[in-house]
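User: I've been trying to design a sequence by hand for this structure and keep getting stuck. Would you show me what you'd pick, starting by listing the structure so we're on the same page?

Assistant: Good idea, let's start from the same input. This is the structure you sent:
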């Protein structure tokens, strides 16, 4: 299995990039904002025999600090009676975070967070059966009792520092029917979030998760990967692909690390293929690394769709600030005769301009509709050229939208490879058009020629496929 260069992966990522139609066609998403640091630590593991074993899992966390690469370390220490938190516990944590998210929109989140078991089970899309109530109780205990031993890994967003200490996700849990601190009986379940969780939530250090799509996933590894992929894919959005060493991935997931490619594929393909089905990934592959193997993840349509959806939501929820004590200006009295209304309509786009418009407003550019219309109507030829040349860039820009606008307006240099590719595409179209003409013509053979005679000599003639022209010749 040969290694590939970053340039090769970038070219493959460009080829796999979804069309605007693919991005827009995905269903709308129901986002829940969850605390970001916990999801990056690999706290939840796919359900397996390993999670029932009361053995800690340790993960090395790489991050940049003051321009330097720093390696932090975190150990997830399970309670002996409960084992490691699983993706079933992650389901409950996300459902609680949905309640927290609703509280956050009303103001500062404060302890305790209260909810009935029925509310949480319903949020997960489950039926209110006795087993689900029992499982929820066990899950809350497991999350609360699991320790997080941090060596410069747990992040406090308020102070922008990483701590070396021992933490828990829940500071306290009081279940329905148990005694509350004031001596009364709990009419709901009550959860006290840790200081670390509260600080990050109120500092808006959050990760948006499409909870509705997440609930449809069946594979435990796929569920465990969703929040991690949200972080990894966003960090690599410029490249449109992301690499992760296989042994590091196994650390996060708490799964066995195999030395054979066939076993790795057998282990991961059910989860990664399910993530492809739901649009999280466009593709994935296994390649050799300097040591062992690595997994290449290519951004899926859902990643771009989610980016667009969140941008639209931010725009809709923006509220302009009111100006206190506005200055009153003396304006002339309005005319009693209303001005004639003039209907201004945007010019109709040609099919070519419509194609370019869809490219500019879609992933990865997301140019505003008004600006895209201005570019495709005023600079149609240049827009087509720059959009055609963009996939050939070896190092995609940090801001694709801003780059493509400048490239069109300032007529950026286009590499010779673009014109070569354009010529080959034109030749291919011409060849296909000729084949279509030959196939539809009843006068010539498969090579496009016909045998004609002037009464004395027979000869092969290239067919024009025009009945009027060919009527001048006598077929043999």
């Amino acid at each position: 299995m040969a290694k590939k260069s970053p340039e090769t992966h970038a070219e493959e990522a460009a080829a796999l990039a979804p069309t605007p139609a693919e991005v827009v066609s995905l269903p709308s998403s129901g986002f829940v904002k969850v605390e970001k640091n916990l999801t990056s630590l690999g706290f939840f593991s796919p359900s397996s025999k390993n999670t029932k074993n009361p053995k800690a899992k340790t993960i090395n966390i790489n991050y940049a600090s003051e321009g330097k690469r720093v390696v932090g370390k975190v150990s997830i220490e399970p309670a002996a009676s409960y084992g490691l938190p699983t993706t079933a516990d992650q389901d409950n944590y996300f459902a609680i975070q949905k309640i927290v998210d609703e509280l956050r929109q009303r103001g500062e989140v404060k302890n305790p967070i209260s909810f009935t078991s029925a509310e949480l089970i319903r949020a997960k899309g489950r039926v209110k059966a006795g087993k689900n109530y029992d499982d929820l109780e066990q899950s809350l205990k497991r999350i609360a009792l699991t320790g997080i031993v941090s060596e410069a890994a747990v992040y406090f967003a308020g102070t922008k520092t990483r701590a070396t200490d021992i933490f828990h996700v829940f500071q306290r849990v009081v279940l329905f029917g148990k005694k509350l601190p004031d001596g009364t009986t709990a009419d709901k379940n009550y959860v006290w979030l840790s200081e670390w969780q509260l600080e990050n939530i109120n500092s808006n250090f959050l990760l948006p998760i499409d909870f509705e799509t997440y609930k449809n996933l069946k594979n435990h590894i796929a569920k465990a990967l969703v929040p991690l992929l949200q972080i990894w894919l966003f960090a690599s959005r410029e490249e449109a692909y992301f690499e992760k060493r296989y042994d590091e991935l196994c650390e996060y997931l708490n799964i066995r690390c195999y030395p054979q490619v066939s076993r790795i594929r057998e282990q991961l393909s059910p989860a990664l293929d399910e993530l492809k089905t739901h649009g999280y990934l466009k593709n994935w592959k296994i390649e050799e690394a300097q040591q062992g193997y690595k997994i290449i993840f290519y951004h899926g349509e859902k990643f771009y769709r989610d980016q667009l959806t969140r941008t639209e939501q931010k725009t809709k929820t923006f509220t302009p600030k009111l100006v206190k004590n506005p200055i009153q200006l003396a304006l002339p009295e309005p005319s009693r005769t209303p001005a004639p209304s003039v209907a201004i309509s945007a010019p109709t786009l040609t099919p070519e301009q419509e194609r370019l418009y869809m490219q500019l407003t879609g992933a990865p550019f997301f140019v505003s509709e008004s600006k895209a219309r201005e570019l495709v109507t005023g600079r149609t030829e240049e827009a087509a050229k720059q959009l055609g040349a963009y996939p050939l860039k070896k190092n995609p820009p940090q801001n694709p939208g801003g780059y493509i606008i400048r490239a069109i307006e300032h007529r950026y240099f286009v590499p010779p490879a673009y014109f070569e590719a354009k010529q080959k595409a034109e030749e291919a179209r011409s060849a296909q058009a000729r084949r279509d003409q030959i196939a539809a013509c009843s006068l010539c053979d498969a090579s496009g020629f016909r045998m004609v005679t002037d009464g004395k000599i027979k000869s092969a003639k290239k067919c024009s496929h025009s009945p009027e022209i060919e009527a001048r010749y006598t077929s043999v």
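That's my pick for every position. To get oriented when you compare it with your attempt: DSSP finds 19 helices and 15 strands in the chain. Residues 375 and 469 are 44 Å apart (CA to CA).
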